[in-house]
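Re: duplicated header lines in exported structure tokens

Our pipeline writes sequence and tokens for each protein into one text file. With two proteins the header for the second block appears twice in some exports. Here is an export where it did not happen, for reference. First protein block:
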Amino acid sequence: MRRITAAVLLVAAWGGAVRAQETPTEREAARGVIRKIAELEASLGVPDLVAKLTGPNAARDEVAARARQLMDTELLAMGDDITRHPEVGFVEERSVKILGDWLRAHDFDVQIGVASLKTAFVARWKGGRGSPNLGVIVEYDALRGTQGAFHGDQHSTQGPIGLAAAVAMAEYLGKSGQPGSVTVYGTPGEEMMPPNAKTDMHLAGIFRGADILLRSHSSTATTRPAAGFGTCCMNINGTKYTFYGAPAHQLTSWNGRNALTAVIELFNHIDGLRSNLRPETRIQGVIVEGGAAPNVVPDKTVADFYIRYPDAVYLEQVTEMVDNAARAAALATGTRVVIDHYGKARDGIAVSTLAEVGFAYMKKYGATGIAPEPGKPQGYEETGSVSSDIPGLGFSAKSSNAPNHTYEMEADALTAVGHAGFVTDAQAMASVLYDFATRPEYRTLVKKEFDGIKALFAEYQEALRATYVMPKVTVP
């Protein structure tokens, strides 16, 4: 579900302008919020923080080296194996068993099946000693494709990357006697909803007590987010439109009502709407049920859509327009439509105190394809409900020469470009975990930034609501 996100314009603490909000309208509407976030960022001294944390440190280097060793000797092979045996969301039983068995062998208690999700898991390091509570999110689901499941987003090695960092850090805590706990969260079905696995796990209290959550994800460049509001793939409404008609023989089709015609009209109506939608809008859908036989008028069809926009406020208007397009299609064809808003993803929070440090570590450990400027703000995973409550970061060292969700990206997971990116992510993740665990002042700074940005979100939403004025349509 990568990679277009909502954003907030910031002026970085070191004086340079970084990536702006997704849309000109947002930039204008949120200028008051922009100013406040810029002031917060200036107070943090992020460049000095980066220099301090990434400087010489033998203990940290040992943790990073252990993460690399685990990747080189065991976990790259594990990722390759999962790549070759893809499983789509919520049926990733083989992958979960592999990950869980490895964690058990490295002193973790593993509970598989949490939050009513049979392939979700929680693995807690047995030697944990209270706070800080270090959390690592891992994913393992494959994409649904016309040729079968495939790892075109390289989730197959997200698990091994997280395991390497978690175990390297747990071993350090065990040897050093430092306080701290390590928990690995297995989150299924990232590419699917419903259910929205991370949201459901969050609502069930699975992430409760975590002080930080880190994850990794495939990327065609080494990137980091700017600080602010956002979500990985823009705000999303997952919606199904089910049309019901009446069957008849095709030779006497007037005796029926064609639900396939209705769903085709829905696609035509949406295409007709595009000129009236803001250009950042994304609406894509597929017909998942189109009828049973060519000689029978289809009496039931289903279309599944992801409706996306950089902010949730205008997304409400877009979704209403698509819903009305479905109603119009039903009215025009004498059918009926049932609308199911079955899932959503919303804004999260990105913080520079984690993003800039993580980015510096990725470069330190040999990342390629460096994107020099921060990207649009984004939560560290696709479900903003989690990243808007718990600070964290997604690591994105270049791991493919091909775009996301392609067969070529899956192939790259098995080659040098993929392996190099995966090892880089593991080392960088382990290093950030080390810094967060061993430096109380760093934890305080992360919390200050996170809480400060979060406190501005309601003001940001209200500014957008005042800006996205519905046009008035009158009859002269």
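Second protein block, exported in the same file:
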Amino acid sequence: MDRKKTKKIRSARIVATNIFMSISVVAIVAVLMLIAMGFSFNESGDIQQSGLLQITSQPTRASVEIDQETLLSTTEVNKMVASGPHEIKITKSGYDNWSRQINLEAGLLTRIEWVRLFPVEQNIESVDSFKSLRLVSYSADSKHLLAAETNGATLNYLDLQSNPVKRAVIPLTQALGTNDVVMTAQGSFKVESWNDSNNKVLLRWTRAEQTSWHLVDLTAPEKSINLNNQFALNFTKIAAANDSASKLWALADNNLYFIDLGTTQISDALATKVERFANNKDTVAYLAEHALYTYKDGEEGAVKILDLKESDNIIFEMGTYWGDEWIAYAVNQDLYLLAGKYPNYKKNEGNTLERFISHENLPYAPTAIDVNASDRIITFWSGKDLASFDIETRDYYDLELDGSNSIDWLDNYLLWESHDNKLVVRDFDGNNRREIIASDAPISHAIISGNNQWLYYFETITTPAPTEENPMATTQTIVLKRLKLNV
């Protein structure tokens, strides 16, 4: 045997094996990378890139069907799915169904995080009752309710997550900073905002031709502040500039101010001839002299965002979604969303906000803007007409409502309306319209509690109360009810 030849053959085999293994490893890594990037082979053997579909639901552990094929896993679901149109259906025993057409984009994550299923068998109970109400306001996290009766002398602060519901009673004399009990029973209230801890509210109190603003501490009402008295100004709008509401933006006599309650200081006028403003914490957008500006606390000046014609009508709102700051506005019948970073006055080299979504030539001019709790969904309202932007998907939707003027958010993504004594819900994009509750009395002020355990709503119950002078007289009782959501 030729040992040299044998040795060469062995060496060649080793080299060939190493080359083969190296190529195999590279190929396997490449395949794994392609799989991780969402690439796969279709039925024709061609390579295609999929999209990642993520589905969450309330309640959890619901079954998921994609194109009529049931997945082995239940919500929460993370699955690579071929790009293109698909039919999604979510079901769970004891609950109604949810479905939607989606269009997955290759290589992108599509999150469906607003699936809400309602129990078929309803368990409804009465929680509380009121003679009449001049204030109903839910906290931003849907954990608390603030209510005040007409001509009453107290605020009622309810914990919606407790069972049974706990109610704290706050004397209006403490909340409003006055000893005049008779005066506190007059007028109307409006909660402009809750702080992030949901233990303070900015409350506007209007009676006759007088309006005052109060920062009401719901857990220590004796610490509440009458802002008009504190700073000797007639405010027309106030908004929190930080999470604790210790800093505020304020508008008085068309001048914009910044208030620091920690030092009890108010700035000089930061801008004049201001018609209105909106803010995203420490940054404010304001309308003055037919132009829209932004200004950040502590900077030397404002930055002009938009020039307007004298005849233009504009409404606007601000927010932040996944690190992107945005301004949404409607000019006449055109809708726009600018996103990116608010411009810095010192480093301003032009507008750092770019047009993100737009929709022009609506058949109506929106009169109000609303934003869901996560700052993802922006809705433009005009009476019974509604349009919405989804910032994450950049989609625009027109909604066909049933004709009720009682429309609001039920949770972070679900809208409710009441008509013909029925509570009707639908997704923010108009899909999955469902009649949840049918009553013998008008329904109002619906919300889902922050722990997803209850759907709260009010019923206005009218009963006969005949007298000799008025045999057709009636009385009204407003009852707070709740539907248990978990079977």
